[in-house]
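agent> Task received from the user: take the single chain below, predict its 3D structure, and emit structure tokens. No templates, no multimer pairing.
agent> Plan: (1) validate residues, (2) run structure prediction, (3) serialize to tokens, (4) report one or two observations.
agent> Step 1 OK, no nonstandard residues flagged.
tool_call: predict_structure(input=
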Amino acid sequence: MKRLRRLIWFIAGRLTLITAVLGLATIAFYFAMNAANIFVILKDGMAQRAMTVMMDTDRGELNKYFAANYLARDPVLAASGNGTNPYDRYRITGIDHRLRMEWMWAWPWEDMARATITEEIPGIDGRILSSWRAVTPQEQLSPPAWQSGRYDVVLIRESGQWHIRSMTFLGDYP
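)
tool_result: status=success, residues=174
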């Protein structure tokens, strides 16, 4: 009887350990999967946002990455819609968009995540439109620099896909 009891406790202890290890591995897998998905949404979404402002691409593409209520109140997109866009005078042909995720957290069972990112566009290829060339000073013939910065981003998962719900500008990125 004593040996049977020891055998049962041995098996129960090993099963508990195996279950705990498998549980932690499952949580780590889903955390890594969410991190990869969130990084892709942030990278592609922020690049599409910049291209929409600079190159006047289709705004409908932004719905893949951003929640609809955020697009209505984004100050960068609002400037491109109300005529104060500094890139309207230029024909932008390409950008060098860089995004770095400093921190991210998303529990596997929650539909909300937070991230801190830095965005910069060190290179903008473009020329001033011929209609603006005569009235623009010589030093402004190349496109203005994009405001690089750090952002605190909140994402939500809707119908299995992550969307950027809000972004808070934390400051300039050197």
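agent> Step 4: summary for the user.
The chain has four helices and four strands.
agent> Done.
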